[in-house]
Design brief:
Largest sheet: 6 strands, mixed
Number of helices: 7
CATH superfamily of the largest domain: P-loop containing nucleotide triphosphate hydrolases
CATH topology of the largest domain: Rossmann fold
Strand content: 15-25%
CATH class of the largest domain: Alpha Beta
Radius of gyration: 22 Å
Distance between the termini: 32 Å
Structural class: alpha/beta
Order of helices and strands: EEEEEEEEHEHEEHEEHHHH
Helix content: 25-40%
Length: about 325
């Protein structure tokens, strides 16, 4: 009798063990051997839909990863030139930043680029609004990062702004939380869920930085039918694998650059520079151009390294498939 495949979703990964959300229960599973011959991008990650052979008395076996509608990734901070895959099949990316010393518009822009490159909607959640005396100024500054970025200022303590977030929590939708430790991700989700489903920790008073309360990615199904993917706090995040996302986030500047007289215009005094003209007229701010340059420089420095590693991996797989290399 042939094995029957079941369909589930990866909700957590612990070393080489995978936990699948299946029919309101959690199933422990391992990968079939063929997965380890492929690329890291082909391995299951949190949020993936997978087919598996169900074993009620032991570990089930994952057979296939279904096609992804979105994929969030970032440069691996521990392995230069490599990519870390964070979450799959995400609809909304909550970029959680507290309105204290953790606040960084540059970091928000990086997350926005990664979300857009990954195929999901970026939403900036400015937490601890009750502790900020000028929320509107920060909200305006963040909104200027991209016309594709939605912005909400909230307070989990007072409940301010939380009601507006419920439009994202509909059945079948998946929300991935990103942000630094201490930004208030766990507190935010506990407030929205109405119960403590995530651990929280107080921030250090001396620098407003938080302790890590989430140590690995995991997906939680809420009573409303939506899914939450929590991620460990990331203070540093690059954009080497989000070049398309940078252009999407700064599409207005990209379009202006096409109107410059010179294709290699640096926007530093060249004649007929559309970018400088936009700054002079007030349509574009110097700060926004500076941020675009910073992200553009970062991706240029890392793109060549990432491309070379990808090229070598493809060459290796080709030679192995042709039988030129032994296992």
């Amino acid at each position: 009798m042939e094995n029957q495949f079941e369909l589930g979703r990866i909700c957590e990964i612990r070393k080489n063990s995978f936990i699948i959300d299946f029919e309101d229960s959690e199933v422990f599973a391992k990968l079939k051997g063929g997965f380890y011959d492929g690329s890291p991008a082909e391995l299951p990650i949190v949020g993936d839909y997978v087919s598996f052979i169900y074993n009620p008395s032991g570990e089930s076996v994952i057979q296939h990863v279904l096609a992804r509608k979105s994929l969030l990734s970032r440069p691996d901070v521990f392995r230069q030139g490599q990519v870390q895959y964070m979450a799959a099949n995400v609809d909304f990316c909550f970029i959680v930043t507290s309105l204290n010393e953790d606040y960084s518009v540059s970091r928000i822009a990086r997350y926005t680029s990664i979300a857009l490159a990954g195929g999901c909607v970026p939403i900036a959640i400015l937490t601890k609004a009750d502790l900020c005396s000028d929320v509107d100024r920060y909200a305006f500054e963040v909104a200027a990062v991209s016309d594709k970025l939605r912005v909400h200022a909230v307070s989990a303590l007072s409940g301010e702004g939380l009601e507006a977030l419920w439009e994202y929590f509909t059945e079948g939708k998946t929300i991935c939380l990103m942000g630094s430790s201490g930004a208030g991700k766990s507190t935010l989700i506990n407030a929205l869920a109405g119960e403590e489903i995530m651990k929280t920790a107080a921030i250090r008073e001396r620098d407003d930085k938080g302790r890590h309360t989430t140590t690995h990615r995991r997906m939680i199904r809420l009573d409303c039918g939506a899914f939450i993917i929590d991620t460990p706090g990331m203070r540093e995040i690059g954009v080497a694998c989000a070049e398309d996302g940078v252009d999407d986030a700064f599409s207005d500047i990209v379009e202006l650059e096409k109107l410059c007289r010179f294709a290699n215009c640096r926007h530093e005094g060249e004649p007929d520079c559309a970018v400088k003209a936009a700054i002079a007229s007030g349509k574009l701010s110097e700060g926004r151009l500076k941020l675009y340059r910073e992200l553009g420089s970062e991706r240029s420095n890392n793109y060549a390294k990432t491309k070379e590693i990808s090229k070598r991996h493809k060459a290796y797989k080709k030679q192995k498939n042709l039988g030129y290399l032994d296992d």
